[in-house]
Amino acid sequence: MASALYLEAAGATDVGRVREHNEDSLSVDSQTGLYAIADGMGGHTSGDVASQTTLTELQLQIERRTKSLSTSNNQDGYYNIVLDAIAACNETILNKNSENGLRPGTGMGTTLVGAYFLQDNTTAVIFNVGDSRLYRLRSGVLEQLTRDHSMYQDWHDAGEEGEAPPKNILSRAIGLMQNTLPDLTIESISERDVYLMCSDGLSNLIDTETLQAFLNYNQHLSAQVICQDLVDIANENGGHDNISVLIIKTKGSSSSEIVTEEVTLQRSVDQNNVHKS
Hints:
Strand order of the largest sheet: 8-7-10-11-1-12
Number of helices: 6
Largest sheet: 6 strands, mixed
Radius of gyration: 18 Å
Helix content: 25-40%
Number of domains: 1
Structural class: alpha+beta
Strand content: 25-35%
């Protein structure tokens, strides 16, 4: 049996240099083992409400459903817990839109990406809906573990025939349509892995090669400092959107404690933005 791993985690979110309002939310919760980012959309129809409500509901659902799981090491059970929890989040946002007189496909919504670490932190359920991303740095190689749910990604996967669609048109999001399915995978965690989650406010401004070089060079820094540095780089590159980033560093059993820190940088009051960008 693999030895337990310890996690050092931190998150940061920033309004960026163009937006007036931050619609991103993040969760860094070592007690539940849940780490996630939600990038809200809707502007005056409350993208920030969608993102925060989704993360709150996700945590409540996972905590409630985990208590009823009979087999402690049943990975399929945890997989289904996350699947059902995300379905509940989708229904919650749909209902809020309906209460506001908005039909499916309109109103507020949000992306969702995250990892639910199980017990000894050697396994995690990775999940995503939309174009917020999760990467893993292992043995110096950065790999994107999620696939963007966007028209641009569909166009790219189909061979890039015809004109490229805008990157900000999503094919899936929480709260816009019934029966929205997330992508879920079971990930085996190794010592010295680094996991990076981010909204597209980061991934659109820092390419994968640059992210890989940065993380390799700065692995010795704390998760908190890495998050702050990445936010700064995205802002230096234009800061066209809200920027959210979450870093998880895995450590061996010789570590003395789980270190979890959250940094939230929000400097905004209002924005009327209907389209995700």
